[in-house]
Each structure stands twice: as structure tokens, then as C-alpha cells.
Design goal:
The complex is a heterodimer of chains A (418) and B (1015). Helices cover 17% and strands 42% of the residues of chain A. The longest helix of chain A is centred in the first third of the chain and has 19 residues, at 76-94. Chain A is an alpha+beta fold and 418 residues long. Chain B is built from 43 helices and 15 strands. Chain B has 1015 residues and is an alpha+beta fold. The chains are: A alpha+beta (418), B alpha+beta (1015). At the A-B interface, strand 2, strand 4, helix 2, helix 4 and strand 7 of A face helix 5, helix 7, helix 9, helix 11 and helix 13 of B. Chain A: Its main location: membrane.
Amino acid sequence: MIHSLFLINCSGDIFLEKHWKSVVSQSVCDYFFEAQEKAVDVENVPPVISTPHHYLISIYRDKIFFVSVIQTEVPPLFVIEFLHRVADTFQDYFGECSETAIKDNVVIVYELLEEMLDNGFPLATESNILKELIKPPTILRSVVNSITGSSNVGDTLPTGQLSNIPWRRAGVKYTNNEAYFDVIEEIDAIIDKSGSTVFAEIQGVIDSCIKLSGMPDLSLSFMNPRLLDDVSFHPCIRFKRWESERVLSFIPPDGNFRLISYRVSSQNLVAIPVYVKHLISFKENSSSGRFDVTIGPKQNMGKTVEGVVMTVHMPKAVLNMNLTATQGSYTFDPVTKVLTWDVGKITPQKLPNLKGIVNLQSGAPKPEENPSLNIQFKIQQLAISGLKVNRLDMYGEKYKPFKGVKYITKAGKFQVRT
Amino acid sequence: MAASPAYGEEKGGSSSLGEPEYGHDPASGGIFASDYKRHDDLKEMLDSNKDSLKLEAMKRIVAMIARGKNASDLFPAVVKNVACKNIEVKKLVYVYLVRYAEEQQDLALLSISTFQRGLKDPNQLIRASALRVLSSIRVPIIVPIMMLAIKEAASDMSPYVRKTAAHAIPKLYSLDSDQKDQLIEVIEKLLADKTTLVAGSVVMAFEEVCPERIDLIHKNYRKLCNLLIDVEEWGQVVIINMLTRYARTQFLSPNQNESLLEESAEKAFYGSEEEDTKDAKAEAASLAKRKPYVMDPDHRLLLRNTKPLLQSRNAAVVMAVAQLYFHLAPKAEVGVIAKALVRLLRSHSEVQYVVLQNVATMSIKRRGMFEPYLKSFYIRSTDPTQIKILKLEVLTNLANETNISTILREFQTYIRSMDKDFVAATIQAIGRCATNIGKVRDTCLNGLVQLLSNRDELVVAESVVVIKKLLQMQPAQHSEIIKHMAKLTDNIQVPMARASILWLIGEYCEHVPKIAPDVLRKMAKSFTNEEDIVKLQVINLAAKLYLTNSKQSKLLTQYVLNLAKYDQNYDIRDRARFIRQLIVPTEKSGALNKYAKKLFLAQKPAPILESSFKDRDHFQLGSLSHLLNAKAVGYQELPDWPDEAPDPSVRNVEVPEWTKCTSREKRKEKVEKPFYSDSEGESGPTESADSGESHHEPESDSEESGSSSSSGTSSSSSEEEDEEEEEEGSGEQSEEKEGEEEEEKRKKRKEKGGLRKAGSPQPLSPMGWAWWPMLSCGPWQLLSPAFGAVRTYELLHRMAGEGLSVEYCFSRRPFPGDPHMVAVQIQISNNTDAEVKSLRVSEPKLLAGMRIQEFPEIESLAPGDTASVVMGIDFCDSTQAANFQLCTHTRHFYVSIQPPVGELMAPVFMSENEFRKEQGKLTGMSEITEKLTLPEKCRSDHAIVQQVTSAANVGRVPCGADNEYRFAAKTVTSGSLVLITLEWREGAAAQLTVNSEKMVIGTMLVKDIIQALAQ
């Protein structure tokens, strides 16, 4: 299915290639470069490109293009999803999925790619299995390896691949047995000019960090599972139990993983924790404009809104901005025209405000549209949907684990139109 | 070592060739001499005894390969290390070998014996990895060895080795396609494998080697369906795609017959005119020929077992299930996929891109499915342009009369975007909305005209093009706009826009008789500097003006034609010559001359603005071909449904002797256990054991499939599963027959009913007693008290009507003459002291599709008198108001009638069984359930029935169960079924369920009924 893979950086260098069938020449990437040029910015490169003999399916992650070469019909999402899985694996192994990390660990990367695909068809993509096959690099291990000459390749057999529960490796042992769950909710919203909500929705995930010995069988229940409108599961979850009892029952993978992601039905009203007052105007026939934005908290359920950052893509005609912030600091990049205001925590007593003059290119026509404001924020200890974990039970093992649940609400794609 | 002698016999010659080749390799490698020196250090390291040095060298070599540098000259030095003890060195050598074996075939042969030894290793993982590398070496000479190895591995005890064998099949096939027949045998064998580990890989091999051999799937179909949920994600995608194709060849379309049946039923029901009855007869005849549709249990099995996978975290799996449902599920069930697809829109932008393409195609066919998620397709300014344009496409497809105002408001924000490509696409989208929805055409047109004064030329140009298309639909009313556009020729430079304006002026020159010649004058002046496309339109304009207004434009036309005669472009020269001959009368001019006017100024049909995603669904959704809208290499056509279902018994599997002893009770006992964990314990030994597995195997398989079985527990083995399936299957088959008979009976009944109804104006429902005679003076009191008071609504108040008061009510009887209309009884009383003359309806303002049958004009109404008339309104199954004017000889009154949702339907007869059957088809999104509490006075059968029937025009369905009430109706316009179930639980609690394809109606109806019951 997947014939070859090329990794290309932003300046157009092919810095890694891997072929699973016969070799495809690098020149096939020229079609990709052509499309990239046409697309102007990186986001608009079409993910699927048809060339006379091949099809190129690519993703863009962390400033790297993963370009795969396909020769025959294959579901495009299959390839895209797999490429993202590859990127996730790199992230998992090296802490970041960057060009330098890949170049520094090129041998491990190659070994990983070799295990992940066989003849272009995915073989082992579960990180638990891969980690048994190829140990992730750590400083300690690389020191030890250089002295003893031992290797990163595990000599034990990846039994997980053979079992019913391929996501969990066998023989896990911890001295401290812990299970942590992070309930993270993101608010996606579009707020219109007048401050009313055009669209709002809550997207949530439960990320888990499970360090439990043996083969624990967990079940996690919620106080209000009916809230969850649409859920997608990690393969470890028993679907039938969820269907019948609304309980998450699973044998967890070892380590960090995403247990579920869910959406809270859009019928429910979504509480919007911040409001934005804005006044942005460009004067006709003069090369300046006004910019005045205030952010304030609302419906925050007694919790502080923190980590507030506002980013604005200003129109091209903007030359510079002369602003004063009552709180936090702002930067304006005159090349990309991006204004970033790092506000920090909002205190209701003194609302943060950013105000000043916008300098426009003289002679340029007045920008037609006011830019939309993208807001990020965080609220600790709160799941905005009201979702609550009821209890976590463990079966199958004797010890008593340490359990913890953390809630956090963030802004997702939160946009205010002006 | 079975393989190596065979190899020796067959390829003896070449292997002896290989030896000397290796011998004088340095000579043949002479050209690489410099490279040799360059890699001398690496060679030394590889030759050393220390593993660490070897490893270091291999790492450097692999890094070279990764960067795409040529390291082929190191081949001999590397291959020597293939048998190295160090596992990492070995793995890296494998990487190298697979990469370069094709280029150095003879040297690669040296390594083969190592792998052959590996194939016999007691450790399953070593066996697997040996097979993996051996099959990856693309050297044609070893094809027989590979074949042998694959065959052997296919019957290995370890499922992991068997999986590897499945992976090796397409590799061998691509190396030598002559092996196809033998490979198919192996595939057949592996398809019968019952482990989840193998299933995905073997189906992948099947798809690559012999996708046309659909017959191989029959026996394994049920097993694959049952294993599906436990197969790894990637395998799931492949299996689901294959099963979609399979189902299309083996089962009947779940929708085709259904729609036919519905149509004919509706016709029979309302059929009052002769033509209708004829049609109904013809259709009934065609239906009788066709077997009534009952879904094959295997078809149902597939739908049931794939549904949970919509919840997969893997976007590819979700998409695969979505396309399966789109292509295979009955209409009413397809809705379930919408939610999952919308969820994918939160994912990476590449995923969004692919999903949106598919949603765009789906939303054309099944608009209702995505309507509830309209807002999820709203565009953010930070979306990449390609995503924005796809979302726009979806929004346009979803636009209908009810949501168009929200969508247009949203579009207004988009038009001001900084992203000009996106703005242009938005303008196109507005154009499409305007053509599709007549109601908003004027609004859109006005909006677009405003855009003509936009500063950005591209925006103006795009608007001009779209306006042109819109004006073509109704040019007469818009001469102002045409004039406005004529002025724009001075400023707009975009050729396409100029050409569009010129065409418009030419086409409608009679609407702008003064301006048109002037425009031609200006254009003649600048003719030589125009683009070709504009020049052609100038000639066109000149010709049309010459024909309509030759006095003013004769000279200008001559001038333009002369200019064109000497143009550089031959198209333009040709056109000029052709037109001159056609329009300018000369002695020699042919017969066509008289018809010139007809030729040029013929009525031209308005263009239809269509989505580019229309008809894309003939490609399997989710496929590469669908995305590219072109057939990709290796694309397997999605076959059409067969007319006759192939024999379903081919999927039956013989039940092995030993499973027969397992009783169902035993299985059920196990079902109670909530976890599969203990079964895992049992299967522990089989997981790790390499030996002694064979006769336990069925049992171990049972564990693996157990967790997948529909009960979600550890009990039944796959064989049992099959057996069970089979039993079920046969059971359902007999049911099927019964079903058929019943269906037949029902149809006969319907036909009879239809004929009878067509013939005589008999009442249609148990509520026949509720009809009142037409035009009687005081119909209100004629109602049976059991029915409750029919609500009357005010159309015109006495004060507003200056003494004329008008009331209306819904008479609930079919409107004579048009079964799609709702009859509205109107009572007009004249409270003035003068006679009111010529009362009539005029100027109805209706949404597209709505129709009004006016009542006959009332010539005069004496003071104090009251008249009652009936008019018919086709509300198109929407609760939108019908606006019209009520005129008297002196005055006009603007009035509007808004129907309560319950009046948009007419009762139908149904048996309980039919009701259940229909209800089964209308689940998922079509089902709306609400809990309610019944107030004191509504807690009797009588009261409930009365309240429900007063809230909606429905018929009661006889019902066996106590405390359960069913009602059925069909919407008047489209004839969609509306099924109402009210379950009265203990005390005041009750649950109301409404099933209807029309979700909006369903939702509103639930509200209305609850309100009625609460009163």
C-alpha cells in the first residue's frame, strides 16, 4: 500500500527516505514541491496529489512534511492516519518530532519504520509493542550502550503482538502503582461581533497515565455519563459494557495513552467563560486605526481563568502597532502580521485591556474586514461540561493503586469575530 | 531443510553462476574503485570481530541509506554479517539487504540459506522474521523458495507466523504474477483461519492478489463479520472495504423496493383520479412481480457488527464504516454515521480535508443526515483555504428553506474575509443557494449587486459572473441591475466579468434599449485591446443589436466586424465571417438569413448551478478514486445491487462434529460473566506456547473470538458462532417466508383499499365521523363531543378587517382534487352594514413548492351574513405560513395561515405488525423520544386518545398491550410515515416516541402532543 516515505523540511530538503518495496526515485517529490509552490502557504498543500505514475499523500506535522508514495488505490485516510501515527511515535520516542531529533536518531527511526510497515501494510503501530521491540533512547541507556556495546533493540520477544490485548506489554512491574486520569475539555466557539454565540461545543478527552503492575482490569464510571454525546474509544475499552452500563471497562496499556475522546452534545448550552469587548477600526483615507480590546471573565464557576493568550492575524496593510497593555505583554510580528498578547491570569477587579494605534501602509486601501481574535485560556480544576468521574475500580490484581483525577478546561478553537 | 534441495535442483545453474561472480567481484566493481576507498573504514569495521564496531558501521550505513546515498558497493561486506549473533546488527543487515538485494541479486543469494535456517527455528518470532526478510528480497530466482516457505508458514501453528505468511503473499505476487493460482490456494487456506491476528492481513492479500474471487469469501463471511471488532485497526479498514463490495454483489438493495412500495402505497391511499389509479395498478403489477424486500440476515449481521466501530479512535476505520453504511444501509439507518463524521472534523487538517470531501458527496444525496450538524461546518478565519472551500460546499448542499437565512447571514461574514479565493467561492455559493431556493433569490441578487461596488476587483468580477447566471432566470424584472452592470464596463478589467456583462446586455438588449448601443460604441473603441473572450462577446453583442436595433447600430456592427476580420485569432476571424454572412442581408445570402433573429435571440435555458460533488458517489466513498474523482490504479468498482439475490446458502458453514455437543444453556451461563479477563487467563498458554497447540487450537480460538462475539463475552467459539448464525439464519428464513406472505396480503389490501377510495368518497379513518358537511353555516357544533373542539384560528380580526371577520380551521378531510393539499375551512362573516362584494384570494406569497387552491370567488355577502368556503394549501410538509391577500371589492387584507404541525398529515390504517415493521425502519435519527407526566385528567384511555387525535390528524393503530397507544399518519405532501407511540407507565409517567423520516415534523409533533396532553 504505502510504497515509500520521504521526510521533507520546510526549506525543501529531503532528509530521510524509506522504501518498503522497490526504490522510488526522489524526483517524484518534484510534483510535491510544485504543489507546495502553488499553495503559497504550507497549510494549503493538498494532502493528495496525483502524478502520472504515483499518488502522493502527505501530512504536515511540526514543520515536517511526511510524503508517502502510493501506487494503487488505497483509502486516503488510511495513509493519513498512519502517517500521523508515525509522527506520534517519533514524538513519543524522542520527546519531539523535529528534524534534528529525527536526524540524531536516524537509526532508531529506521528501525521503527521497518517494524511499523511490512511491504507497505501496517504491522505494529501500538507504542507498547514498539517499545518492547526497540527501546526508546535515554541518556543513561546511550551511555551504557557505548560502554557495553549492547543495543537499543530489545532481545526479548514482543509477546504483546501475539496476545489478545496487543496494546499491553507483559510482565509490567512497578513499586508505586499509580493511575492518573486527566479530564481535559476544550471549548470550541465562534462568537459574533455583538458577543452572542454563533456556535459552541465542548470537546473532551481523558488522557491517562497508568503505571500498574501485572494485568489490572479497570473500570471507570461517571456521575453523569449521559452528558457524553459522541465518544470514541481506545481499542482497549469494552464497547458492550459502555453500551449497556455506561461504564468504561478496560485493561489499560502501560504508560500514557488517550482513553476516550468525547463531545458534549451541542444541544446543551455551553457556558462561555470569558467575554471580549473590542473596538477595532480603520479610518478611511488616513493611515491609522484604533485598536481597543478588553477581556473579562464570565460564568467561570468561581474558578480563575488563567493562561489567557490572544492572537490576531492583522490585515496585510497593517505596518505596525503602537499599543499599551494594562496587563501582560504583547508582540507584533510585522512580517507575519500576527499580534500576540500574553495576558496571563484575569482578575475581575482589574480587567486586562490592550489599546492603542494601528499604523497602516500609507496609500493602501482600508482593510475591509476586521480581524478575528483567537483566544486561549485555561481553567484548572473544572470540567466545563460538568462531567465528573465517579469511581475507579480495579480487578485482577491484589495491590492497592494510587488513583487521581484532574480536571482542566481550555479554549479550543475559540474565535471572536469583530 | 526441505526448501534448499528444491532450490538446488531447480536453480543449480544459477547458483553455480553466483559463486564465480562473487569470486571476481572486485573486478566487476572496478568502476566503484573510488567508492571502495571511501568506504574502506566501514569495510574494516564490518570485518572486525567486535560486535560494537560492526554495529557502529551498520549504523553509519543505515544513516547513508536514510539520506538516500548510495551504499550498494558495501554489499559483500555487509552480507557476510547476516548470521551475526548480535540482534541489532542482524536487524540492520536485514534493512540493508532488503534495500539493495534487487540491485545485487547474485550476492543476495548468499544470504538465503541463513533465512532458510531461520524458517525452521523453534522460536515463532525468528521464523516470522526470517520469512519477512526472505519474502522482501526482490530476487526472481528465489520465487520457488518463497512459495514453499509461504505454503509452509501458512500452516504454521503460530498465528503470528501465519500472519507473516499472509503479508508475504502480495510480495511474491508482485515479484512473479504467474504464481497467482498457487497463491490463491494459500489465501483460501488462510481465509479460513479463525484468529484475529491473521484476518486483516489475509484480506489485504486477497485484495491485492485476487479481489475478483469473491466466491472465496462466502464461507468466511460470517466469521469475518464476527471477528471484525477484535481485528487490529488497519485490518478493520481493509476488511470493511472488502465486505462493502461483497455485500453489493450478494444482497438486494435495502432501499429500492422500499421506495417503490411507499410510493405506490401513497398513491393508492390518495388516489382519487383515474390516472392515479392506473399508475397504481401498473405499479402494483410490477411490485407483484418483485419479491417484497426482507433484509438478508447476513446483511443485517454486517451492519450490526460494524456499527460499534464508528466509535474507533482511528479516522480511517470510522470512514470505512461510514462508507459501508452509506452504500449498504437502508435509508433510515444511514443517519448514524453523521455524528461520527462530524467528530472527525476536530482532527488534523488532512483528515478534515478527506472527510469533508466525503461529507460533500453524501450531503447531496442525504441532506437530512447532516442538517442537525450545520453549525459544525461553520468556517473559522484560521481554517486553511482548502478546508474553507470544502466547508462552504457542504453548507451550500445543506441549505434549504428553513435554514437558508442563517446560512446567508453566515455567508455575509465570509464575504468580508481577507482570503480572496475564499470570498470568490462564497459568492459562487450564494449563487447556488439562490438558484436552488427560489425564496431567497431576490435577497441574494440584491446582496450580490451591492458587492459590485466592492473595492476588490476579483470580488466584483466573481459577482458579475454569478449575477449573470441568476439574471438569466428572470431577466424581465431586473433591467435596473443590467443597467448598473453596463456602467461597470468602464471599470472592471477581469475578462470573464466583462464578457459576462456584454453577453447579458446583448441577450436582454430589449430591456435596456438606450444603453446597449452605447456600450457597443465604447467596446468598439477598445476592441483591439480586449482579451479574446471579450472580443467574441463584443461580436455577439453587435450581432444581436444589429438584429433588434439596426438603425442605431448598423455602422457600429460593420466596424466591429471589420476589426474582427483582421484579428490575429482565427476563432475571432471565423466568428466574424460567420456572423456577417448570417445577419447582413446580401444578394447571395442563404436561407438562414431570415432565421438569424431566431438563431441569436432564442430563449436560452437558465444554467443550473450544480455541485462539483454531484454523482461522485459512483466511486466508493472514502477511496482515493473518489477523492481524485478519477479512477485510480487498482480501483475495484463498487458493483450495482443485483436484481436477484444470489443463493444465500453459500455462506452456510458445515458445523464440525465436536461443537454440536455444546448446549445453548451452557453458553448462556457463561454469558453472565461480565469480563473476558478469565478467558485470557485460560488462553495464556496458547499465547506463548509454540508447541502442542494444534489440537487445542479450536479452543484457543474460541477465546480470541469470544471477546468479539456479539454478546461481548467469552463464551462461544467461532464455530459455535457460525452454527448459531446458521440457526438464526434458517429461523429467519422461515420468518422471511411468513413475512413475504403477509406483505403480499397487505399489498392486496392496499390495492383494494386504493380502488375503493378512488371510487367513492368514503371516510378514511376511524375519525370519519369528524367530517362535517361542506359549506354548512355552523359546522362547529356538528362535531362529536368525543373529538374535542376543533380549534379555530383567526385569519382576520373584526377590527382589522373593518367589520369583516374571518376565521379558519383545519377540516381534516382530503381536499377534493388534490390529495397533497390540506383542506382549510374558512368562515367569513360580514359584520358591516353594507354588502361585501367579490371576496377572493389574490397574490399568494408562497415559499417554493407551496401551492394554493383558492376558493371560488364569493360574489356578495349580505350584512350580518356568514359564508363558509374551503381552500386547499399544499404546505410542502413545513409549518411555514402561507401568505396571501384577501380582497373585497374595496379593500385588500394581508393574511397568513400557519398550520400546526399536526394538521400536515392524514391518518393511515395499519396493523400492529405493520406498525412495528415500519417503526423498525425509522430508528436512529428518525426517532424522537420524550418523557412526560400525564396530568390527572389525562389518565384514561379515552382522554389520551382524544388529546392526541386533537393535537394531530392521526389514526389509531390497534394495539395488543395495555397502556400503550399507537397512532399512524402520513404527511400530506410527501407521504412520509409518522408513527406515534405513547407508553403509559405506572402513575403519571409516560413516554412518547415519534418515528418519522421528517425529523423536523417529528420534533415539533412531540412538542405539540406533550402540550396537548399537559393541558
